[in-house]
Design goal:
By secondary structure, the protein is mostly helical. Helices cover 53% and strands 5% of the residues. The strands form 3 sheets. It has a two-stranded antiparallel ribbon with strand order 1-2. A hairpin with a 4-residue loop joins strand 3 and strand 4. Helix 3 runs antiparallel to helix 4 and helix 3 crosses helix 6. The chain is elongated, with a radius of gyration of 22 Å.
Amino acid sequence: MKNHSLLLIFLSLLLLASCEHQGSSPKMNPEWIGKVVEEMTEMMVHDVTNPPLAARFFSYACLSGYEVYSFQDSSLHSMHGTLNNYPKIKHPQEYKAYSPELASVLAMIHTASKMQPSGSDLQQYQASLLDSCRQIGFDEERIAQSIAYAEDISTQILQYAKEDGYNQTTSYPRYTPVGSPGSWYPTPPGYFPPVEPHFNSLRPFFLDSAQQFKPLPPVAYSEEKDSEFFQILEEVYHINLNDTTREIAAFWDCNPFALQDNGHLMVGMKKISPGAHWMGITTIACTKAELNFGETLKRHTMVAVTLMDGFIACWDEKYRSNRIRPETAIRKLIDPTWTPLLQTPPFPEYLSGHSTVSTAASVVLTHYFGDNFQYEDTVEERYGLAARPYNSFIEAAEEAAISRLYGGIHYMDAITRGQTQGRAVGNWIIDKVE
């Protein structure tokens, strides 16, 4: 990745500043958790990781760190008996000098390095991190035991991940568009194939099944101008685009598949996934609230697994209803030259994934931080977008949802019913955990 070595040096300096000593034993601060999440996000941007898969990576990486730390923090509890089919993790007893904080962070890195396509690059990040640890007082024995402990727990979490069914999806029949009137079809400029058509077959973390919160069917496709479908289609076509709505749409775009046509070639644009955006918001909230290491790890983990279950539920509906995107329908029925403000993502329209997972994440974050937690969302600054202030997570999620209408990529019923499904997923998870 461009300038990656400079980034590692900069991160090392930050890491040095984010450590403290307790007596003679150095201790890592909770900011390290957010830094690993940031590094994972950069890898996903590089790898063009699709949104559901990004949530899967975050989930198992965070679970690895959480499981390590839960063994020494009585306020945390193993997910055994809470998550579906989660094993009783065996904690090694032979390591007496390991650092729980360092081992937690290393477990996250180890799991991510094994799951993400460019995960091997995380070894360079880990080496830089360990050099920083040595400079602030970690001895070699503590580092070695922390590495061993982390890899032991990570290996068990990776086995749990292997059993969620994702690897089997590669052997399923290739999805092809159904071709019926009103059904989804790949859109320009990339005409990408459908993303994760079998994601609903994965084992959820908390949900009983992908169909647990099955939404109402979408408004039926119709080419009649007095039909309900034509009304919601015209709503997208006639949306009022001004500076505010354009800014909101761009801020919440979060489309890893975006391409820019420069006339002679298509250029991929650096964008994060919706899940990565909400993981970044979680880091911002934990930092502002000055949470300790255990609580920071817990809240990142809870948001990650919520995102995963939200995507499983939403993707179950997407490939059941297979509804046509506004771009395709408007060009066919209203204006053959029309293009949406945002690039249409490569999967069916109903439900809105961003509406579902943003709402689910906001429910969980509101549970932990309260209804009126004010914060500034700086997640997109590194991608050239100005920060936006919010008075609550719910406010942010509502803006994320309506951004899909402004962007021209969703009809309104997909947005509102996505929000309904997201609230149901988020509330179900909180009820299960608390």
